[in-house]
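Hi Y.,

Following your request, here is the sequence exactly as I used it, all 113 residues.
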Amino acid sequence: MGQNGYLWILGIIVLAGLLMIVISSLNKPSRKLLNLTRKLSDAEVTNEKANQLIGLLMSIKSMPKKTAYWDSIKTAYRLIEQSPKVDLEFKQKLRTLLQGLSVEQLQDSKKIS
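Below is the corresponding structure, written out as tokens. Let me know if you'd prefer a different format.
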């Protein structure tokens, strides 16, 4: 195999590496979302954690279309809404944000007034 063959192989390897980096960076917000939801269910829900979720949702440029992510968002919403330690302001902010993201099937136990 000549020098051109090695250059082609090297080029393919570099291209594959760049493609993996791009795919990984596109999936990063989704992983953060799932991790944050797990943290909410494992520990006490507070204003700080509610604010983290709101910030993360606002930073995601395109919402994942997989059902698991939307279910995770809905679970996080329910945990925050039912927590007595989260201020009404954060609950309203999250509800408004989720409605803007077209989450239509929010089943809440009580209405936020």
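The longest helix spans residues 3-42.

Thanks again,
Q.
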